[in-house]
Design brief:
The structure is a homotetramer. The first copy, chain A, has two domains: about 30-45 and about 300-429, Alpha-Beta Complex (Aspartate Aminotransferase, domain 1); about 60-285, Type I PLP-dependent aspartate aminotransferase-like (Major domain) (Aspartate Aminotransferase, domain 2, 3-Layer(aba) Sandwich). In chain A, about 40% of the residues lie in helices and about 15% in strands. Chain A is built from 15 helices and 14 strands. In chain A, the strands form three sheets. In chain A, strands 2-10-9-8-5-3-4 form a seven-stranded mixed beta sheet, sandwiched between helices. In chain A, strands 1-13-14-12-11 form a five-stranded mixed beta sheet. In chain A, strands 6-7 form a two-stranded antiparallel ribbon. In chain A, helix 5 (about 120-135) links the parallel strand 3 (about 115-120) and strand 4 (about 135-140). The longest helix of chain A has 23 residues, at about 300-320. The first copy, chain A, is globular, with a radius of gyration of 25 Å. In chain A, about 60% of the residues are buried.
Chain lengths: ~425, ~425, ~425, ~425
Amino acid sequence: MPIQSASVEQVAIDVAQKPDRVPWRFTGAAIMKLTQGQTYLAIPGPSVMPEAVLRAMHRAAPNIYEGELIEMTHGLLPDLKKIAGTRHDVAIYIGNGHAVWEASLANVIAEGDRVLMPATGAFGHGWREVAAGLGAECEVIDFGRRCPMDPAKVAEALAADKSHSIKAVLAVHVDTSTSVRNDIAALRAAIDATGHPALLMVDCIASLGCDRFEMDAWGADVMIAASQKGLMVPPGMAFVFFNEKAAARRAEMPRVSRYWDWAPRANPEAYYQLFCGTAPTHHLYGLRASLDMILDEGLEQVWQRHDVLARAIWAACDAWSAEGPLELNIADEAHRSRAVTSLRIGKEHGTRLRRWCQDQAGVTLGIGLGMATEDDPQSDGFFRFGHMGHVNAQMIMGLLASVQTGLIALDIPHGSGAIDAAARVIAEA
Amino acid sequence: MPIQSASVEQVAIDVAQKPDRVPWRFTGAAIMKLTQGQTYLAIPGPSVMPEAVLRAMHRAAPNIYEGELIEMTHGLLPDLKKIAGTRHDVAIYIGNGHAVWEASLANVIAEGDRVLMPATGAFGHGWREVAAGLGAECEVIDFGRRCPMDPAKVAEALAADKSHSIKAVLAVHVDTSTSVRNDIAALRAAIDATGHPALLMVDCIASLGCDRFEMDAWGADVMIAASQKGLMVPPGMAFVFFNEKAAARRAEMPRVSRYWDWAPRANPEAYYQLFCGTAPTHHLYGLRASLDMILDEGLEQVWQRHDVLARAIWAACDAWSAEGPLELNIADEAHRSRAVTSLRIGKEHGTRLRRWCQDQAGVTLGIGLGMATEDDPQSDGFFRFGHMGHVNAQMIMGLLASVQTGLIALDIPHGSGAIDAAARVIAEA
Amino acid sequence: MPIQSASVEQVAIDVAQKPDRVPWRFTGAAIMKLTQGQTYLAIPGPSVMPEAVLRAMHRAAPNIYEGELIEMTHGLLPDLKKIAGTRHDVAIYIGNGHAVWEASLANVIAEGDRVLMPATGAFGHGWREVAAGLGAECEVIDFGRRCPMDPAKVAEALAADKSHSIKAVLAVHVDTSTSVRNDIAALRAAIDATGHPALLMVDCIASLGCDRFEMDAWGADVMIAASQKGLMVPPGMAFVFFNEKAAARRAEMPRVSRYWDWAPRANPEAYYQLFCGTAPTHHLYGLRASLDMILDEGLEQVWQRHDVLARAIWAACDAWSAEGPLELNIADEAHRSRAVTSLRIGKEHGTRLRRWCQDQAGVTLGIGLGMATEDDPQSDGFFRFGHMGHVNAQMIMGLLASVQTGLIALDIPHGSGAIDAAARVIAEA
Amino acid sequence: MPIQSASVEQVAIDVAQKPDRVPWRFTGAAIMKLTQGQTYLAIPGPSVMPEAVLRAMHRAAPNIYEGELIEMTHGLLPDLKKIAGTRHDVAIYIGNGHAVWEASLANVIAEGDRVLMPATGAFGHGWREVAAGLGAECEVIDFGRRCPMDPAKVAEALAADKSHSIKAVLAVHVDTSTSVRNDIAALRAAIDATGHPALLMVDCIASLGCDRFEMDAWGADVMIAASQKGLMVPPGMAFVFFNEKAAARRAEMPRVSRYWDWAPRANPEAYYQLFCGTAPTHHLYGLRASLDMILDEGLEQVWQRHDVLARAIWAACDAWSAEGPLELNIADEAHRSRAVTSLRIGKEHGTRLRRWCQDQAGVTLGIGLGMATEDDPQSDGFFRFGHMGHVNAQMIMGLLASVQTGLIALDIPHGSGAIDAAARVIAEA
């Protein structure tokens, strides 16, 4: 509420009596918010949208039959493939990550087919459920929540499948819940070593444009991604990349639904087939702006930026961990995502810390996901940092220094020197 | 190109010799564009987006786990139902019209089921193909491209289906290609008269928020719509409304894929189930702005506005038709859409007129769709006006007066008095 | 208000009794608005802002000491000069038209100096008052409200000033109130013929970027303009162009206030001098976008577009005038502005017609300004069309067809064929 | 540049040989930018603009003669007065701070009048120059660059002016160059003690909406402010508040120029007089959004937020200062601004640190201003933090942690514990 006339007068008297010569302090009951400013959404997606993307989406509807939209769209496809590291095909879907979980499977997995899921977090289990929803039989190898998959175990399972009834291995590159990063090239090598013909399908939703990924070089047959993480576009668009082996498998399918069918999307005879109907016009303009930013910066440079910033975060976390309850979910740096970091801090601290950061500092951390235990059914002891896409040094240092402030404010024990440790990583970059 | 120094001097000499006393005219070769200004996209979707919608979408990503987005989303559902005229359920999909063609069918039509399609344009045939893609057997009653369906013929087909193997009648309320408007209440009455239990599924993609539609009152079991027409939001979001009869049918389905399943979307236990994964955050903000506009204006008033403007368009078209080749595709006013108007003008004129309007006046008309004949394989003799959503008198009068200008410019014979005829409809409103 | 549950039921009963087979019409008391859509502000400034300009202004604040803003600003100056047709100097002011009325005078007119004002409308008188406010003695030659100035009369007044006490002739190129366009080259010639050394200062606020203007070629010593008309940028920035003769006069001034002084603005040693303090950052980005549009189109083409559209308006007005009270304020086409058109229609009709257009059609016309008479103290019998800047054929045809609709709706007598007459001008362009 | 086909193949070979099992590091020559993300402009104005303000300005031009703009504008005046702590008058100018320096003086200081300037930084001297430009005679008491004015010295000078030829004392509340904050209430008391009738004119450009200021209670007769600092609106609008004593003085002035005259602006008979011509339409919408934010938060709360964040900054600076060259310009906390902080770090470090922060971290610090010495003619040894307006804890912690990173990266000696010190201030708030 604004100043009341009364209070103006009141202040007048006060000031007359003791003018503002000593540092002025507040004593009243009014509640101040230290969050009134640019807030920062540091969750693992949707990520921070660049103004250039939002501005590109702030425009009148274009003609969807002729003209600039059509040309612009065709330019998107090669650029998407560059970012995926593939020379093969891409189908764009209006949808989120779940949509392309289903779309990718619908093209190559028929009812009754078997798939193998080496799970390393909640999103692996989520994809498996979608497969089950299509009538597939799913074999899960559960690697828990704190370590990457072991390619040898996957190879073992495939080797045991003499009849080659397993049609696909579903691998999540980075599981957003655990922040584990799996080694896709090693998985490919392990599959190849068995001679098993199963497709390697990879979920890069949380990693594309953040962590290095090279679809062709690493031997993924199908790769899926979405707009709202490393690609920095609002949720609502997702992608299925597929190679010739996958295309051949699709050709053998008894039936693929019209909407999920990737064939006309990837090789359309008419523009509307690209999206099976009306194009997602505004998202396409946003994507164009985002791809321009990524390619202007350079994909290697984008990956390197994410690497430095991730290591800065890990350095701070290592320092905090030296004392007190905070702990990185993935102990081995070699298996950590460079886009998201999952943390453990104990049931009594996690949600409290998240709330403090949001309500007192203006930075929103990601909730723990898929980490529930009997003791902690709401995953209150977990939280996550998203550091994907449009992130730079001042944002990450602000994130870390805000968490440092929260740890102090809430009196949560923690090791010292976290900010300096992070600063040194950036300073040396 | 800007003025050259040379030309400045040249002009100086010219002016000194004969100062600017006579009306100044251009003689040079430079090409002037009369389109440099606010352009107007008068195609039948995506429709003109209100600035309030675009502004609402120009914002930072929100938290998708807690806070204002969650509350706002829950407020959308009752408002969507108001606009659909239903007290039943709605499932929101990230997708376009084709997506909800498939989504709606996937919940109630199993492989091998039969559906009945009384087709009155290209979009009826499109929906039928999607049904076929899901493994349904489709019976088509084709009513051609210039008239509405005859409910009696549909009743006949149902009556012949003694075994009740037809699970659904797929009806398009307004077919965007032909601009025919079908009488859904009459269709319902005809179905009921046969005692056949088939679901009545209605595509209102082109009509919702433009032409009166009352889902419950008219007896539709399933209704589908999309964001980019009467709802004035960019393409990328679509809706399936369904009643208890349809829900019961879904409960009997052997299997519904996770992504298409409307049950958790309509009655979610957790927020993310509303969209089967990440929410379409920015579209939701846009939809909120759009629903606010519609409900502030009043749904009856929105319908009435579309009615007056449609009649103004028809009056102009009737005047033009009095002489020359232009003709309304749907002769009987009682069967015309109030959101889109399809026109016939002859192969030599249609595309030419569209191009003139776009390149000389700044208004883009819709292409003819699904109207190809042997003589006119590219539908060059057809065009359409979109007049859905965010349209008012000055826009429609500008559209009509621009077409009038094009007819004059291209020397296409036409009856006189079109603008006055349209003006009179508006003046009397 | 949205549909009430009750009304849904009510409709259900109604529809059951008489399904929607006959054209559906409204009878109720609810008020429909035919204005719900893109509204069009057709006043003589601020003009319609292109989305590209607004988008360019929707951005974070830039550094004002280093970097891209500084470079961008320097690029604006030559482009502004191209549009003014000058090789001399320009000073940019944060301000409106009144600001540069005062700024321009403050640099060359000292207290007690005499100026000569050949007035052709309210804005001439306005500028004169500003001169008086600076202590100048103003001699007015009033040419009324319906015709241009007569250069011979100006020459006469100068010839009578043997002592050369008149320091400047203040000429308004286009007076926005009357829509008269004065012949500046002819005025220059007339002044030159007298040998009088008075500066020729020209107000191009309403004409720059619309009507041809060539500062150097036509011999203006000082020219002023503002952002919100032909330059299509929101109000808040204005310009003073001046040549060496004017600069010499400024050098002789006893004192010029720091803020109005054009010398450091035009030839700054430091960036902040360009604007005498903090730069108008967002307006500068808007101006860049606007200048890009103008120069991409071509200045000659911009002028030609305004010419064609103005002639279309005049043709419609001529047709309307053939019968009834509507009349163009400036009878002779040779003296009409191509940016604004003033109209007379009689006290009982003007305000009514404006209100109808705004409230029923969504187009806002300009009020009559400076046209008050004893009979019509509120200028109710006058209105104006603004047709400056970002205007194209469909906008102007929409404007005219909306007025046509208003004339019909309000039963105001008018000649027929107005829209066709306008259409023919555009068709022949 | 995007990935080359060649590099894809190259990577394929590399990966086949040594799959991605060890932490992946960059070795190449490509240049990574850690600035690609949300950049933060931490200069002392223009300040960070809230998205709500920018969004409010992204709109079509309104009618400037009738309707919502007019009503909205009238609502701004009382809210501006609340923020200024006055019940008197306010005149709005299209302009920057320099404009209201001149506007305020032009209403009360005639040619030849004397003014007294107790200067505490560059902006004091700037205002004095503007006074000189109006023909005033200026007496300066220079308090240097590191401490506030001494009211007793001002009183002395006034007491010596027996003839009351000094018409005004020009005081800068916060001088943005030095970041000193002067005690206006004490100055008023000192002036009053002398019985001298000079007006007290106060420049609050850098402080309004950041540091507590109460115009009426503290006894300022005239107060000036601008839009681009605590008011969070782009540069281009400024304000002169004045009380009855100042109004009386204006009434005695021999002449005030039309544009600067505050009388019709503050008490207009017609809307256009509010701005002496065309209104700054888009800035007005932005100001409305900004005032809503300030008043929703509460002015006391806004001040308190600035206080906490300023003390966090000072705590960090104190820690840094404990070792090495960094030093706060104003030693005594009681005299520091809560909107801007000036720092000294030595010629070899200042510009280097600023550049590092901007080019490596994405945060832009303010340059040193008005601090030049013979040794350091470019003020390279100085820099400033702006912390005004739309600032919260995560922004300030990000700023401080980025500077910490820069100090480490550039090997500039500094005391330890800065971030923790700042965090403790915020944690205790």
